[in-house]
Design goal:
Elements lengths: L3 H10 L3 E5 L5 E4 L4 E5 L4 H16 L8 H15 L2 H11 L3 H8 L3 H15 L1
Parallel strand pairs: 1-3
Antiparallel strand pairs: 2-3
Helix pairs in contact: 1-2, 2-3, 3-6, 4-5, 5-6
C-alpha cells in the first residue's frame, strides 16, 4: 500500500512539485508549473487518490481541463499505481468482495478500487 508521503516523494522524484490550495477543485495538474495542486482538508484516501490521478495526467502530459479520455486514462493510472494484486487478494480474503470495506483496507477510494477491479478483470479474462 502506498502512503501519501511516499507518493509525494515519487512525484518530486519525477520533477513535479506538489502544492496545496484551500479553495477550488480537489486537485489539478498544472503543466506550465510542472506541479500538482491538492486541496487542504481532504481525507487521506481522497488526497492520495487525487494525487495519483493528477500524476497520471502529468505522466501522459495531458493539457489542463477535463477531457473524457484523459480522465479515464488518469483514473487507470492511479488505480495501477495504488492497488497491487497481492494487497487486493489479501484484503479480499479478509472482507470478501465488498468494495467499501476493501477500499478502506487498501487506503483508496471506492472509485479507484472499482477502476482497478475493472482493469484486473480485463487482464485475467
Amino acid at each position: 500500500m502506498t502512503n501519501l508521503d511516499a507518493l509525494i516523494d515519487v512525484a518530486e522524484g519525477r520533477g513535479y512539485r506538489v502544492l496545496w490550495h484551500r479553495r477550488g477543485p480537489k486537485a489539478a495538474w498544472l503543466p506550465r508549473r510542472h506541479a500538482v495542486t491538492l486541496q487542504v482538508g481532504m481525507g487521506d484516501a481522497d488526497t492520495l487518490c487525487s494525487l495519483a490521478h493528477e500524476l497520471g495526467h502529468a505522466h501522459y502530459n495531458d493539457p489542463p481541463g477535463h477531457f473524457g479520455p484523459h480522465e479515464i486514462r488518469a483514473d487507470r493510472f492511479a488505480a495501477k499505481l495504488l492497488v497491487s494484486p497481492i494487497d487486493y487478494a489479501a484484503a479480499e480474503a479478509l472482507y470478501g468482495p465488498h468494495h467499501t470495506l476493501l477500499a478502506h483496507e487498501l487506503g483508496v477510494t471506492v472509485k479507484v478500487l472499482k477502476t482497478w477491479t475493472t482493469l484486473y478483470e480485463r487482464q485475467t479474462a
